[in-house]
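Issue: copy button drops trailing tokens. Both records pasted manually instead:
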Amino acid sequence: MTPAQELPPEKPRVSVIIVSWNRKELLRRSLEALGGSHQVIVVDNGSSDGSAAIEDEFPGARFIRLPKNFGLTKALNLGIRSAEGEYLLFLHDDACISAEGASQLADLLESASGIGAVCPKFEGVNQVSSLPTPAHPYPHWHTAESGEFEDVECAMGAAIMLRRQFIRAMRQIDERYGNYGSDIDLCAQVVRRASKKVRIACNVKALHDVLGKDDSLFEADRIIGTAVFLGKYYGFWAGMKFRISSTLQSIFSFRWGMAKYLLSNQKLDGTHT
């Protein structure tokens, strides 16, 4: 067969989209676990810890480097545009799953049309909850059950797989969310709007180090994301009431930095200084 007659490369079945920010060693761990079995796209949110140096170690992965931290949601949407697989696995850089585990998740989605999203089980980590409501904007999170699977309303987005056609039907993840809330919204889209299941595949194990940020901007982003969710699913005033009460609470507790971010609607989306 001549070069002109060579068949085009086969499209990947699974695309893994990793959003990373200043977690070089955890990113390396995730990439090593995934190997070269799937398409891997790393969206780096302006890391300053030398993460760029590991790109040469993983020539099979595609790195998209952003000039600063645009938050999780915008970074995921950029990764989605480069994904070619039929199944998209969104993976945080502090989570780790094997290539075989990612394939098992895809097998589950392929075999069960009633499942809209599937996640591996994080051992010993709070992973599932109910969806937020005006009465309970921050539902209790708990660990997944120990059976074969658990169908839930909401699962942590540190490792969650959906069909590419489902994301395409949404056009993109709602960018009114900055760093917090887009995974909860995805679960709501699956459960409430598509009437499908979010399933924890308890036989597929993954690691999650649950590393978070504790500062005024990240906390304000969480409040704004929750307000967006409540407004989207329970009406404008539900979101506004939550946001006003949270802003007043920050003022009365003398948390001026967070109050400033809430009053200016400053979420983690690249517009912060």
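Record 2 (pasted manually too):
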Amino acid sequence: MNLALIGIVAALTSAASWALGSILFKKIGEKVSPFGMTLSKGILGIVLLGFAYAANGFEFVTFNAAGMLFVSGVIGIAVGDTLFFASLQDLGPKVQIIFFMMGQVMTAMLGLLILKEMPLLLQWIGIVITLLGAVTVLWKKIFSSAENKKTGLRGVVFGLLAMFCFSFSLIIAKHAMKDITPLSAVFIRMTAGTIGILTYGLIKRKVRAWLNPFHDLKMAAFFFVSVCIVTFGGFWLSHVSIKFLDVAVAYTLGATEPLFVLPLALIILKERITLTEFIGAVLTACGVIIIIIGSG
């Protein structure tokens, strides 16, 4: 079986799941703080992954691998997810997802420096093309009005910090996943991230306030569905992809979310698709095709 093909399919399916999850989390974020979303997603994710982990069978994980995954989880989930949710509220799902394609350059550089993974020429060309779409959409979002400039720039700062956390944490996870399954890796990372954000909440005595909105059962049910989608469809499959592909390639394929978020935003949020957003999505598609050709 072609392991690279498995990685490509996993990455693209993960992208579609993240696109849907971002739209759902945008609606939830109107009532729940970024910290509350991170903590609640982590708790529910641990329960869901725990059942899957138990059904699949526990495996031995070395202390060194567990330590790296724990650090990766705190950086990528406790810190990265919180920054991601904060950025999402400022930029909106369509713009943020396209903007987050810029994380490919950051991941590629970290992968080159730490893992010595050198993307091929075609893969580099694909990465550059995807970035063009991000710049085009982001420029219009920020400079369309004074209000957008303020919230947009704030969203960009949160987004850049989130991208660094995601990229760096994936590099650490990639190194630790050499001898263990993606399910074990994602379970350990999710647990570590949840412990990290819970510890912060307890110190600040904010946990009760973060979780108060979930007293609304309709909100809790909506959140449950959203977490299921991003935990198994997005989070777990992203780990499958980075196990079988170079980090830069897997992360870039995962950034095809704009191809999915535009029609989903139209259907769910009733948001009009602008020409700029369409061009950004087309550029992303071209970049992905080049990356897949380069990976073959």
